[in-house]
Amino acid sequence: MTKPDQTLPEHFKAQRGWINDPNGLVYFDGRYHLLYQHYPEGLTWGPMHWGHAVSSDLNQWQHKPIALEPDEQGMCFSGSAIVDWKDDSGLFDGQAGLIAFYTAHRDKKGFDRGYEQDQCIAYSSDSGETWTKYSNNPVLSNPGFSDFRDPKVFWHEESQHWIMCLATRQTISFYRSKNLLDWSFCSEFGEGQGAHEWHPWECPDLFELITEEGQTAWVLVVGIGMTPDIHYGSYTQYFIGDFDGVQFTNRNSADTVLLLDEGRDYYATQSWSDAPNNQRLAISWFSNWRYANELPCSVTNGQMTLPRQLKLIESADGLRVAQQFACRSEAEVIQPTDSIRLNKGKHQSTQFNLNDGESAYFASNDEEHRIEIKRIEERYQISIGRSVNTVDDELNRHFSHQYSRDLSVNGPLNVEWIFSEAGLEMLLADGLMSITQRSFPEHP
Length: 444
Prior knowledge:
The protein is globular and about 65 Å long. By secondary structure, the protein is mainly beta. The protein has one helix and 32 strands.
């Protein structure tokens, strides 16, 4: 067994107030920028600002002033950020600069009520220290969608265009531009594909990955809420496919639902643009819309997961996304037993060689978190449980759960986990399955 340095990275949270979706993830001038949905004046969701933090290593974060605030065009809903390396926008006098894309959301007045959403930009000429909203916003007006939000923008080398992915009701719409200011519609994906429910799709991301063997595929990430088949609140699904700069095509059957995480608290996943060494680094909101506004807290409500590196692998079921922790701490390797205690402040790993019918059990000391792994022929059944006992019966129902998932792995099973005050993050089968569950706040 090895006992490496167990100094764990921190789960990012605001200094005060509410946070949810990660936004504007971009690497520039030696720093990772993490912008995020933020309401500084309350502990539940409210008028959305963009908070801002930076890190040189994804382990420790430095808080920066609020980047974007609501104005006459509305609240600042989710979006992304890019480096305009060649000054395609003409906003930087020929130099490189940062551009953030966000949705301006405003509630309608009068009897029709509802809301309006348009796409706007803000830019920074000083490496993200200050942000200026574009004087000619919006850069993309709503063509008539009831939901038209969460722009994810990236450069597509093959087509030589900037691409914008937008959540449009139950689909993702694609736009493209040469100058980041004028956008034209390309295509729409999603009708009859994957998981759907009454709540619109949210927080898209699109990127290309390559396996170690050289296979490539495009990964489209989409946030979903409660569905007829998944009753656990907000989840993040993904599609494996192809993208030619205009249209995304799903390689799997339309009814295939792939989840980035099998736990309850891994939502609104976004990846960093321009990350070093072409890595695909991502982070998610460490909570769930089912209960996020109900949790007891006093100073801040909400935090992010630890950053992950996303990889493409060939699994028994085809191409899938696998995850690795993107932190510098090294896992302590422990001996496998049929019962393992989850100790806070630990980054650990082990490998199980279970025979058919044998099980292994993980549990926190208070039994709040419970994971059972059972070998069934050429697969593993993963039972995921969490319980809490509060005076609020509805919160108990929303936060507590017990369900099972199958993992198609024939042979030994590697398990790695980080357990902290924030909660449990567990990766199985070299990251083929991820289980992320926050802990119930002990000290509101």
